[in-house]
């Protein structure tokens, strides 16, 4: 595989991408992986159906899958970094087997482990996460690198398809100012449950 260039990779503005995806969100529930994806989601505006993850990487897609299976009438979006997705590759296989039609996974691919100092991730070397998802059996996969593709994706994530979809969005490698939402997981869980008219556990 070809070694990546040293310069920060070009791509879409991650804050604008996430703001566009949640602009007409309706009932959409959003799980964001730790670090920049969570800051992007918070920067687009806090919402009771935002579930921000903090701490260990690799669980965001599995968390979204569980929520999508538990709430089949609610559209669920997972916003995951490429590093996050690389740490949870097995989730593609389980998502393909379970086929929740209300689940969308969007991978914010800057080809970097941005949060920890912008080391190159495997996608900088050409590892293709959409192809991996397709190889697992996810029937709807795509890579987006322009505004027209983003508009199509925004429309897709708020409605159910024939199955789940996995989309890699090529974003730029610039680091953005941090926008820190609430970090209290129990509080976030209770708020999410209330938004779904579920009582406390
Ligand atoms: C299991 C685990 N390993 C390592 C870390 C340290 N860590 C925190 S964020 C991060 C990089 C995140 O990269 P990515 O998901 O691509 O998000 P980006 O900041 O590039 O948008 C790493 C390695 C962690 N939190 N959990
Ligand atoms: Mg990254």
TrEMBL record:
<keyword id="KW-0456">Lyase</keyword>
<keyword id="KW-0670">Pyruvate</keyword>
<dbReference type="GO" id="GO:0030976">
    <property type="term" value="F:thiamine pyrophosphate binding"/>
</dbReference>
<keyword id="KW-0210">Decarboxylase</keyword>
<dbReference type="InterPro" id="IPR011766">
    <property type="entry name" value="TPP_enzyme_TPP-bd"/>
</dbReference>
<dbReference type="GO" id="GO:0044281">
    <property type="term" value="P:small molecule metabolic process"/>
</dbReference>
<dbReference type="Pfam" id="PF02775">
    <property type="entry name" value="TPP_enzyme_C"/>
</dbReference>
<dbReference type="InterPro" id="IPR051818">
    <property type="entry name" value="TPP_dependent_decarboxylase"/>
</dbReference>
<feature type="domain" description="Thiamine pyrophosphate enzyme TPP-binding">
    <location>
        <begin position="48"/>
        <end position="166"/>
    </location>
</feature>
<protein>
    <submittedName>
        <fullName>Sulfopyruvate decarboxylase subunit beta</fullName>
    </submittedName>
</protein>
<dbReference type="InterPro" id="IPR029061">
    <property type="entry name" value="THDP-binding"/>
</dbReference>
<dbReference type="GO" id="GO:0016831">
    <property type="term" value="F:carboxy-lyase activity"/>
</dbReference>
